[in-house]
Amino acid sequence: MVSYADFITLLFAFFVVMYGISSVNEGKYKVFSVSMNQAFGTNAGTGDQGTGLSEEEIYFKALIERRNARLAEKYIKQQERMKRLSEALNSKLASFVNKGAMSVTQTERGVTLDINASMLFLPGDAALQAVAVGTLTDVAKILAAEDMPVEVEGYTDNLPIATVQFPSNWELSSARASSVVRLFVEQGLSPERLKAIGHADNDPVASNGTSEGRARNRRVTVTVLAPPPEAAVSTSAN
Question: 116 and 60 in one domain?
């Protein structure tokens, strides 16, 4: 009987100790939860009473908000990077930009260098002129410092062409874009980054009814593509 009583006493003491440890852990958990809420910018002690959300939901909402904040910061840095690229091209090509032979624009899609075809090619030809080689070499040196993909697109006016080499404006516009791409590759750009596209007389920027408009439509555009933005996650409760 004495041994049995001692056993029951020890068992009772064991459960008292376990209960005490459990209470301490719960208190630590609450302290930890409050600290996490404060770290993530949420109000301590909210939960169902304050927002209708449990502590776990508030915690994950805070994680989502932090992720979205990181995405926003990353997007801003990407836009600043594209802006620096645009400024570098504008600075290097200032003389041509001032003459209206080139233009540099920055959009959500990336940075686009628009070049009048008259300064690159002879009429009806796709071989780069000597002065164009030097200019495009300067462009290639700037692009070589980046790692973003580059699209080169050729455009013509609506006047038809029918030669052995270029049966239509499709072949002419594609060949002109390819000539620029080949030069970029020769200057050290990775071929995997490059794409040559011919549009013929589609997507004109001016009326083909005048010689001035047709001259504007004969062009080559070089677009450095910005990385696509990552989608943010909504924190609204379902």
Answer: no
Profile the chain (238 residues) by mean pLDDT over runs of 10 residues: 70 69 52 57 50 67 74 82 93 92 92 96 95 94 94 97 96 98 96 97 96 96 86 54
| 110 backbone dihedrals φ, ψ, rounded to 5° | 155, -155
Cα separations in angstroms, 112 against 22, 77, 100, 103, 148: 64, 19, 15, 8, 13
- Is the CB of residue 38 less than 8 Å from the CB of residue 44? yes
Q: Whole-prediction pTM value?
A: 0.69
| Separation between Cα atoms, residue 48 and residue 25, nearest integer Å | 22
Among 235, 228, 202, CA closest to 217? 202
CB 160 within 8 A of CB 170: no
User: How many domains does the structure of the chain reveal?
Assistant: 2
Same structural domain, 64 and 100: no
CA dist 201 and 117 (Å) reads 13
Single out the residue in 55, 70, 85 at which a domain terminates: 70
